[in-house]
Amino acid sequence: MQLYSAWVVPYGIGLVLLAATYTRFLFRIPRRSAILLIFAGVWFVSGALVMELISGHVYQAAGSKNILYIVVQTLEETLEMSGIVVFIFALIDYIKK
Length: 97
Hints:
Elements: H1 8-28, H2 31-62, H3 67-96
Helix pairs in contact: 1-2, 2-3
């Protein structure tokens, strides 16, 4: 499989470093808040990195004027925005505690 978006490699490495940096923080906050923050991060990254890889493949195979590409792009943006919503919810939930 060919890599269509080269930016995902350095961003993926940065993501691993960021996750390693914040691991200790996640163990120190309440369990519910940590789970929500992890869920929000996974949700966002699945849209930003994973769906970006898929959309690059679909774009290369079928072009941008294709219903499949439009669906993949919409799913990518929806995952990213809903991940941000869950992240904001997790922060508000943590602040309330």
